[in-house]
Amino acid sequence: LLLAALLWAPWRVLDGAPLAELSGDQDFQLFLHKNLEFTRKIKGDVAALRRVVCDTFQLCKEEELLLVRQDLGIAQPPLEQCHGRTFQAEACFSQIRAGLRTYHGSLAAVRELLPSHAGLVETLQLDAANLSSNIQQQMEDLGLATVTYPAEERGPLPAFSSRFHHQVGGFFILANFQRFLETAYRALRHLTRL
């Protein structure tokens, strides 16, 4: 028994360690599992809107639109801190929050493009804001440094030079958002396994 206790003791110390060692923290695990499901739900809604863009405008394949994409200047928030080799949970959470804010604003262009699906786009915007808020709250609960962004200013929507560019812009906003969510999902799942 003494040998078992000595062998187990070093692992017990990790329960109070920084974020990477929080695998035993039940509140943190609950946060991760709930937000994994939430991220999966948002990804599903983005995929549904991509199908609408495909069906409505026959814009379905990125490789066919790459030349047009270069002219559009569609924002693609970075998530390099959420990838395997460079993974840093605190920085990853901050990048996810910043990206969710970017997509919250960009989705207004999609809402304008698909007025008959405005309800789903608005739900996506609300979900992006809620996921960002969940991450902010968890960072605060863990005592991690948080970056507070200034109140979002409602700037003009991206200036698309034509209806076609607006359609392609909407396509790439959704395609980028879906990839962003896939990376965020993998990062959250990675934390459940630490």
From TrEMBL:
<feature type="signal peptide">
    <location>
        <begin position="1"/>
        <end position="16"/>
    </location>
</feature>
<dbReference type="GO" id="GO:0005130">
    <property type="term" value="F:granulocyte colony-stimulating factor receptor binding"/>
</dbReference>
<keyword id="KW-0325">Glycoprotein</keyword>
<dbReference type="InterPro" id="IPR009079">
    <property type="entry name" value="4_helix_cytokine-like_core"/>
</dbReference>
<dbReference type="GO" id="GO:0005576">
    <property type="term" value="C:extracellular region"/>
</dbReference>
<dbReference type="GO" id="GO:0005125">
    <property type="term" value="F:cytokine activity"/>
</dbReference>
<dbReference type="InterPro" id="IPR030473">
    <property type="entry name" value="IL6/GCSF/MGF_CS"/>
</dbReference>
<keyword id="KW-1015">Disulfide bond</keyword>
<dbReference type="InterPro" id="IPR030474">
    <property type="entry name" value="IL-6/GCSF/MGF"/>
</dbReference>
<protein>
    <submittedName>
        <fullName>MGF factor</fullName>
    </submittedName>
</protein>
<keyword id="KW-0964">Secreted</keyword>
<dbReference type="GO" id="GO:0006955">
    <property type="term" value="P:immune response"/>
</dbReference>
<dbReference type="GO" id="GO:0008083">
    <property type="term" value="F:growth factor activity"/>
</dbReference>
<comment type="similarity">
    <text>Belongs to the IL-6 superfamily.</text>
</comment>
<dbReference type="Pfam" id="PF16647">
    <property type="entry name" value="GCSF"/>
</dbReference>
<keyword id="KW-0732">Signal</keyword>
<dbReference type="GO" id="GO:0045639">
    <property type="term" value="P:positive regulation of myeloid cell differentiation"/>
</dbReference>
<dbReference type="InterPro" id="IPR040117">
    <property type="entry name" value="GCSF/MGF"/>
</dbReference>
<keyword id="KW-0339">Growth factor</keyword>
